[in-house]
Specification:
Layout lengths: L1 H52 L24 E2 L58 H9 L3 E5 L6 H11 L5 E5 L7 E5 L2 E5 L4 H11 L15
């Protein structure tokens, strides 16, 4: 009789232990699930906050190139591969042969003239930021781009007074922007910045405005903080 009581007691304790173990496992599962939920919510919150401030942080994970590009690369230009080297190493004098060919037309980086040559006024570089009615050589234009500016160029063999007037209005009093004809290119309109080029054939004011906003004084240019010249 005593043995039967002990057996029942063992069974009861075993059932109780089983229930306790089950509750323990359920509690651990719930705690683990809550942990991952909180972790996920925290990660999402961190990414949202980081996305709000990333644009203003002085960080550059692009190896020195501008990170401001859209998926199509149409509005702010296509990144160009240019001649690499120090700023002074990319200067050469009028009369000397171009040390390395440019990689695009119009050029967006590479060797360029430096300083004002009084004997050859058309070779002075950089030139003042304004609207020109005669072509400017790449050797001069590239120096302007090095200073963090933007070039707007047009190719109109048969004339395009309306386009020139529209481009002049877009530029207005903007700093570090010049307009000039560029006959040696395939498209009608070209926008240039240091190592960036955008070309198209139909006037798109918003596209031009965005390019200017993105690239004027962009830190992608070697001497982006050079003063404005008028």
């Amino acid at each position: 009789m005593a043995n039967d009581s002990q057996d029942v007691s063992k069974k009861k304790r075993s059932s109780s232990q089983i229930r306790a173990d089950r509750r323990g496992r359920q509690h651990r599962k719930k705690r683990t699930r809550n942990y991952f939920i909180y972790l996920g919510v925290g990660l999402i919150a961190f990414l949202l906050i980081a996305s709000l401030f990333a644009g203003s942080l002085p960080l550059d994970f692009s190896g020195g190139s501008s990170s401001a590009v859209d998926e199509q690369g149409q509005s702010i230009g296509i990144k160009q591969e240019g001649v690499k080297g120090g700023v002074e190493g990319l200067h050469f004098e009028p009369g000397q042969a171009l040390p390395s060919d440019y990689t695009s037309k119009p050029a967006t980086s590479g060797y360029h003239y430096s300083g004002i040559n009084l004997d050859i006024p058309e070779k002075q570089a950089p030139v003042p930021w304004r609207v020109y009615n005669t072509p400017i050589s790449d050797e001069v234009l590239v120096h302007n781009l090095e200073h963090g500016g933007v070039g707007i160029h047009y190719n109109c063999p048969e004339g395009c007074s309306a386009l020139i007037e529209s481009l002049t209005e877009i530029v207005g009093t903007k700093q570090k922007v010049l307009v000039s004809p560029y006959p040696d290119m395939d498209n009608k309109i070209a926008l240039t910045a240091w190592e960036y080029l955008d070309v198209f054939d139909v006037l798109d004011k918003e596209r031009i405005e965005l390019f200017i906003e993105t690239h004027v004084n962009s830190r992608n240019a070697p001497e982006w903080n050079a003063p404005n010249m008028r």
